[in-house]
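Fill in residues.
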């Protein structure tokens, strides 16, 4: 009798569990919406770039944990100070992207008056200065200053620039760069990276851009279907004129999904072609799978997908390299991970601001456009 009761109880629990999972699956099915905001990953990307990849490629945070209080270099923040430019143009440079090797004391630094989170046209010329002190000529390039004017004209000066950079602070003593007898540019000033305070043993988010002035950068829709089909659609709209007509760009990525207990698994399949170099000349073709396991939280018309990926696992020098890159004490970095928190709603989002045109093509020539990809 007891055995029959146990069998009946087990069967009942199994049925209840299946019914509960089926009910949750029914609630998940449907269309969910999420605005795509400007962040350090979407910065400088075109509409086509965003649409060519799945939404998880653009919407993750970086989290660090250290074993002692640390100050991490924030290359995305606004540096303190400025570099003054006078002569052919008069302006101040306040954006910096630099690299420094503490062992060789070699460095390369790029500075510009164009901010990474600006999409509108500069009111004045775009100024960029690039300098390095590499000992091996083949590793570096000539120092230069470029000035691009809004009318299409530009000035380019190749000349060695006197500077010092320790990974955090750039100092440029006052000096004159000569373009021609009647066109000179005076340069001088200092810039210091801001830092992010990392409390000991406390996971801390870095390099985010959650400012109130953040731009909407199009919208995502995920259509979760009963047949296991998962469709991600990216849409970008721009008003054409006051008549209500709009320019609309849309593209989609198709994947498969399944629910297992409290986890949604999304599987992407990509076709690929590669050169077979191991066995001599030839070309191979096939498909590879990429699966993401999302924990989820669903409350009414809101769905949050959660995932994380620990970087540097089983890689001997990975944490050491990031300590060096972030300006942290050696041996202080305990963990570095990517975290996805994707918040969807059944209600289509309203755009607070609109990205009025594709990214300024002129900016693609400048290093930050490449460095921040």
């Amino acid at each position: 009798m007891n055995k029959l009761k146990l069998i009946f109880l087990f069967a009942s629990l199994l049925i209840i569990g299946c019914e509960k999972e089926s009910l949750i699956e029914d609630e998940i099915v449907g269309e969910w919406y999420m605005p795509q905001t400007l962040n350090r990953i979407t910065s400088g990307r075109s509409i086509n770039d965003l649409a060519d990849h799945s939404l998880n490629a653009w919407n993750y945070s970086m989290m660090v944990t250290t074993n002692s209080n640390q100050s991490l270099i924030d290359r995305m923040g606004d540096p303190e100070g400025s570099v003054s430019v006078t002569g052919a143009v008069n302006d101040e440079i306040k954006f910096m992207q630099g690299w420094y090797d503490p062992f060789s004391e070699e460095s390369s630094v790029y500075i510009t008056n164009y901010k990474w989170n600006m999409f509108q046209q500069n009111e004045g010329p775009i100024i960029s200065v690039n300098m390095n002190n590499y000992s091996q000529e083949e590793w570096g390039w000539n120092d230069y200053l470029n000035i691009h004017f809004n009318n299409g004209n530009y000035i380019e000066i190749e000349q060695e620039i006197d500077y010092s950079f320790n990974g955090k602070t750039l100092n440029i003593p006052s000096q004159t760069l000569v373009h021609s007898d009647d066109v000179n540019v005076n340069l001088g000033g200092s810039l210091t990276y801001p830092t992010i305070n990392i409390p000991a043993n406390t996971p801390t988010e870095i390099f985010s851009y959650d400012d109130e002035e953040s731009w909407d950068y199009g919208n995502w829709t995920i259509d979760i279907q009963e047949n296991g089909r998962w469709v991600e659609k990216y849409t970008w709209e721009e008003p054409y004129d006051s008549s209500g007509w709009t320019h609309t760009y849309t593209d989609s990525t198709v994947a498969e999904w399944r629910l297992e207990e409290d986890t949604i698994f999304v599987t992407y399949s990509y076709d690929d072609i590669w050169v077979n170099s191991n066995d001599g000349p030839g070309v191979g073709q096939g498909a590879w799978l990429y699966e993401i396991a999302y924990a989820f939280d669903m409350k009414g018309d809101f769905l949050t997908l959660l995932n994380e990926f620990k970087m540097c696992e089983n890689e001997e020098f990975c944490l050491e390299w990031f300590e060096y890159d972030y300006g942290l004490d050696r041996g202080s970095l305990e963990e570095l991970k990517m975290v996805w928190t994707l918040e969807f709603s059944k209600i289509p989002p309203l755009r607070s601001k609109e990205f009025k045109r594709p990214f300024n093509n002129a900016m693609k020539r400048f290093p930050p456009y490449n460095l921040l990809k």
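Helices lie at 2-28, 47-51, 318-326, 367-371.
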